[in-house]
Design brief:
The structure is a single chain. 35% of the residues lie in helices and 24% in strands. By secondary structure, it is an alpha/beta fold. β7, α5 and β8 (142-146) form a beta-alpha-beta unit.
Length: 266
Amino acid sequence: MKQADYLDTRGRIFDIQRYSIHDGTGIRTIVFLKGCVLRCRWCCNPESQEYGIQTMMVAGKPKIIGQDVTVREVMETVVRDRTFYRRSGGGLTLSGGESLCQPEFAAALLRAAKENGINTAMESMACAPMETIDSILEWLDVYLCDVKHMNGEKHKEFTGRDNALMLSNIRKIAESGKTQLVIRVPVIPTFNDSEREITDIARFADSLPGVKRIHLLPYHRLGQDKYEGLGREYLMKDILPPTMEHMEMLKHAVERVSGLECHIGG
């Protein structure tokens, strides 16, 4: 695809967040893409799940969620902070939703960043055909990949899909050596917050070639109001976030069974 052509690739986003210090190293600009194949009960961005443009009530007022943009238009925002990326080791992160639901747009965004000398990262569950993932890896510096559970049935109960394809793809990504793979685990009470469940994930991550880091992301309820704004029920309303003591216990458990560098948050 010619340069002019790929910059005109269109996609659907619902937010661009500048000056983030999460979801990758340094100061980052996060582009949130619409659409997801899972329906995780704890999702803090429920407005990301549907590809369609929606209306969500925010502070008592209707807000349109979703807009169609070109890569060129997104990059006008991304390149503004090139100085901050350079000084901090930051860059562009794609998030969602699931970026692989819009693979051509995601690949074009990552390519545009790389051709501007900007570090690239993507948050993803690897829930797509491996051929789709391969089309993106060329432009991706860091793959921030969720592993939510090792048990397929429990994974399906809480997310709507089993995890067989995801786990298979994650191993293939690691074996390809094409990108730095970081495993991230959302720690969700009643789902995967036991020592055994977390250490099962840690052992899997430790078996992946080249994987050195695992991040434990504590459950929070910051997206709860969004469900009400979308006219949906929040199924986790009675679940409390894990305590820091519990997170530290899980961190020590990961370090005990693996050689991975373990972080809380990230």
